[in-house]
Structures are given as structure tokens and as C-alpha cells.
Amino acid sequence: DSGVTQTPKHLITATGQRVTLRCSPRSGDLSVYWYQQSLDQGLQFLIQYYNGEERAKGNILERFSAQQFPDLHSELNLSSLELGDSALYFCASSVGGAPSHEQFFGPGTRLTVL
Amino acid sequence: AQSVAQPEDQVNVAEGNPLTVKCTYSVSGNPYLFWYVQYPNRGLQFLLKYITGDNLVKGSYGFEAEFNKSQTSFHLKKPSALVSDSALYFCAVSESGSARQLTFGSGTQLTVLP
């Protein structure tokens, strides 16, 4: 167990809908990362927050947004969902925000868009 | 731009034999290199990293990796494979002094045959 928790584990929804994925980092970790894993795209970095502020942005679509709250938990919001958004979404955390820090991954949320 | 390549989608090895999972990378400056492992229906788990210093890095579960700057490689190795090592292995790279986060390879499925 990495200490990173993600809810829900599974999510099934329809095209055009909006969902929110939640992540709680390991105790003491200030940085949260979001990743998307799919068969065709592999593991893609979406966005990073450090102590409440956006630190780095990857291949995140404009329909997606995220935030990190004062208690350091994070939420990833996906809107106007398309079939291609079906994927595993991982949250990871690290003690600092530097690229040299190892990341600890949660178990993921499997999103299915029908 | 930073990139990482895992040239083998699948590696099969007999239990007790040495294993190697290959990784090559491309960055403009000095790399930070990581290996992660993913078991079925689980998040990624950190194995080891190279930041600076000794080219041979030792990590969890008896794994090690050798940083080779001239060949831009960071191959993962283990002297004696276990059936329980069967999993999906990811190499990842970032760059020293860069604000960019990790770029992951496409993954190598390791199967250790009893």
C-alpha cells in the first residue's frame, strides 16, 4: 500500500457527462500528480500541483481541470466526456515537487464512458 | 524534448535466470531516470532511480540498473528472476534543471516462467 488513496475505484458514465476523481496524497507529501493510462496512449502525465499551486502541465485537455485543496487532497474534473476518455486515471504524490523525487501512485480510478 | 524508449514489449525469462529489461532515453541535459513496476489492477510502484553519482543503482526486491551515459541507456537487471517478478515495467525520464515532469516509456511486460 503506497499510502495514496483514490476514489472511486470504478466509474461508468455516458458521453457528455462530467465526473470528479478524488485523490488523497501520502501523509507529508506536498505534491500531487495526475496521469492517464490507456492502451493506445500509454501512461501520460496530465498535471502537477505543489502545495495548492499548479506546478507543471502535461497533455491535459481543456475539458479537464484539477485543483489541490488546503488539506492537500486533489480533484480531477473531466467534462464533456467522450468515448476516448475511457482510461485508468492515476494520482501520485511526492514529498517535494522536483522531478528528482520518486512518486508514489494510488490504485487508480477506472473510468468507462459509454 | 525528453523521451524514453523501451524496445521490447515482452520479455520472457525462466525462473532463476538473470533478467534484463531495456531502456534508452533522450534529454538535452543530465537525466533523472526511474524504474517503476505495475502489477495487474494496481498502481505503479517505485523500484529505483538514478539522479547522480554511482552508475550502478540498487533498488527494491533485488533489482538494479546501470546508467550508461555514452549509450544513453538505463537497463533494469536482476541476477535471478522469480515468478513473482512477472509484471509490467516502466522506465521514466526527466531532466535535471528542467521544470518538466516524468516522461514514461511504453512499458515492458516481463513474464518469468516456472
Characterize this entry briefly.
The complex is a heterodimer of chains A (114) and B (114). Chain A contains no helices and eleven strands.
What does this structure look like?
The complex is a heterodimer of chains A (114) and B (114). Chain A is mainly β and 114 residues long. Chain A has no helices and eleven strands. In chain A, strands 2, 4, 5, 6, 9, 10 and 11 form a seven-stranded mixed beta sheet that branches. Chain A has a four-stranded antiparallel beta sheet with strand order 1-3-8-7, with no helix packed on it. In chain A, a hairpin with a 3-residue loop joins strand 4 and strand 5. Chain A is globular. Chain A starts with a strand and ends with a strand. The model of chain A has no long low-confidence stretch (mean pLDDT 94). By secondary structure, chain B is mainly beta. Chain B has one domain: Immunoglobulin-like (Sandwich), CATH 2.60.40. Chain B is 0% helix and 53% strand. In chain B, strands 2, 5, 6, 10, 11 and 12 form a six-stranded mixed beta sheet that branches. Chain B is globular, with a radius of gyration of 14 Å. Chain B starts with a strand and ends with a strand. At the A-B interface, strand 5 and strand 10 of A face strand 5, strand 6, strand 10 and strand 11 of B.
Helix/strand/pairing class of chain A, anyone?
mainly beta
* Arithmetic mean pLDDT of chain A: 94
The number of domains of chain B: 1
Total strands of chain A: the figure is 11
Overall mean pLDDT score of chain B?
Answer: 93
Rg of chain B is 14 Å
Are there runs of chain B of 5+ residues with pLDDT below 50, and where? Answer: none
Helix content of chain A: under 10%
Q: What descriptive keywords fit this protein?
A:
heterodimer; A: 114 residues; mainly beta; seven-stranded mixed sheet; four-stranded antiparallel sheet; 11 strands; B: mainly beta; Immunoglobulin-like; 0% helix
